[in-house]
Amino acid sequence: MACYGRYEPTASSSGGGDWIARLEQGSGPVTSPQVNAIAAEGLYDYQKEAVRRALERDGRILLAHDMGLGKTVTGLTIMNHYRGDWPLLILCPKAVLTQWAEEVARWCRHPRTGPPTTAIVKGKVTRQGKSVIDIKGSVVRGDMKVKKFDGEVKVVITTFDVLARNLDALRFRPGGGAWRAVILDESHKCKSPETKRTQAVLPVALGAARCVLLTGTPMCSGANDLWTQINMAAQPRARSALIPFGRFQRRYCEHSTIRTPYGSIDRYSGVKKEHEEELNRVLRTVIDRAKKEDVASQLPSKTVAPVYFTASPAIRKKLNERQARFKAMQKADEIAELEGTDERVPTHEVLKLFVDNAVERAEASAEWVKEFFVEREGDDKCIVFAYHRAVLDELEKHLKKCTMIRIDGSTSSREREALLDRFKTDDKCRIALLSLGTCSTGLNLQHARTILFAEMYWSQTLHAQAEDRIHRIGSEEPCNIFYAMFPNSLDGMVYASLRRKAETVRNVVDAAPPATPAKRKPVPKVTPDAKGVLDLTTALASGPPPVTPKKRRRIIEESDDSEDCEMGETLSAEERSRRAQAAAERAGDVQDVDDDCPLECVPVKK
């Protein structure tokens, strides 16, 4: 599972000095914890192992799991073990602010009090005493705006840049005191300690008792990306052994000199080949690595999930207006149906509400794509589907600076083949903007592992066919399917409808047929030989014939014995057997059969 492997103390490598041995010594397990079974319910084995390792290290770890392996859930599960250190601070990219709030509500729900009170901080913030006030666009338990939060808020979600701009107000947690529980999503954004972003985040992370770093790409350009992350994830007793940043990059990075008219500039990048193994040894003291190919056996072949985007106050107002208009249209249709009139709302007016929502959501969808597939190093590719041309145009407007392709109904066959070939072969072209109506069938795009439906359409068949563009026979890695939406809007209605239709298809089309009952073996017929003797050898070898109540009644009814049962009389099994034997004897000679033999006695006609 672990690409970098689990920490195991080794002898000091040549040239590394004693500081690596001291770092390893200080990075060993602090405790032998027990993972809370309730908190870890629903996690895969590799996630439970990551939680256990984090608890061993007193809540400090760098989770370098590939995209789609559930870093968010793993990080929240770790922090659920340290509720006493909350409020929890979560720093993440702007594109996933609302997504984090949704995951917190789902995975941090208390059985009695429900989800924790959560504040999303997106703008200018000031502090008055111990309370943080004037939060622009804050969210607490949904979309309820607030102007103030204090110690009652349990989770604060914001971006790295908002923290840097409002450091005086957000440096300390609500109610006063340093943050004790911090999650850094996409921690590779904190690279050089000389940048303003890192200078704002570093003291907050170092001062926290628990700090979980999440990233699928811990090293984007070189070894100098790792120093800050190692420093933040290291245990306090090991942190003093880490060498300074300047010495770290001189040892592990390739050095070059850039000549300018104003002098020379030293440039450090990449990793020195002779020190790769040693750097791996340093990184193992803080990292838990999981790659898709290593844990594929634990994962479903396809994961489908919604991704929620934050709506600005202006967009939220429009979303609420469209939702109110849709409800009014529904009511008007119900009245028209009751009155038996044809004055119903035209279908195109209803659909326009959903298209307008998708157009409003296009910018947020584009930001999400750029965050994970443009600004991040790697070779993962993403397919973005939309149905209407207006949505495709809006997406293209916000992605025009990215290397991408677009295919819709106006693309000729020749252009289409050339664009698809470029998307498959060009490593720099990582985004394909495709029409859901045109490209949901007939394409093999399994070299991509992610699909984002920037617009949802009402046809579940279209979506299923589009998902199969990457979820195909021969795929070696799990697929991730995301549906973009705004919370508390009409988007949820479409998504719920698609899920219901998919469930119906599974129940009707994909359900396994009921088990077919085993056929009963034919009962061999026992006939007498020339002397009138029954040969039971064959019958006994092939198994006893069934003794049915109907057959017993027939034999009894054929008897004129005075002991025959009356209507409604209940006979024991022994009595039925005795009467059947007597009836058979009166009808003719029979072969004596042991009382324990389950065979029915058959009379021999004279």
Automatic annotation (TrEMBL):
Alphabetized Gene3D superfamilies for the sequence: P-loop containing nucleotide triphosphate hydrolases (3.40.50.300), Tandem AAA-ATPase domain (3.40.50.10810)
SUPFAM superfamilies with a match to the protein in the record: P-loop containing nucleoside triphosphate hydrolases
InterPro entries documented for this protein: Helicase_ATP-bd, Helicase_C-like, P-loop_NTPase, SNF2-like_sf, SNF2/RAD54-like_C, SNF2_N
GO terms classed as biological process: DNA repair; replication fork processing
Domain of life: Eukaryota
Pfam hit, one: SNF2-rel_dom
SMART domains: DEXDc (SM00487), HELICc (SM00490)
One annotated Gene Ontology cellular component of this protein: nuclear replication fork
Region listing for Disordered, in residue ranges: 540-596
Protein known as: Helicase ATP-binding domain-containing protein
Gene source species: Pelagomonas calceolata
Higher taxonomy: Eukaryota, Sar, Stramenopiles, Ochrophyta, Pelagophyceae
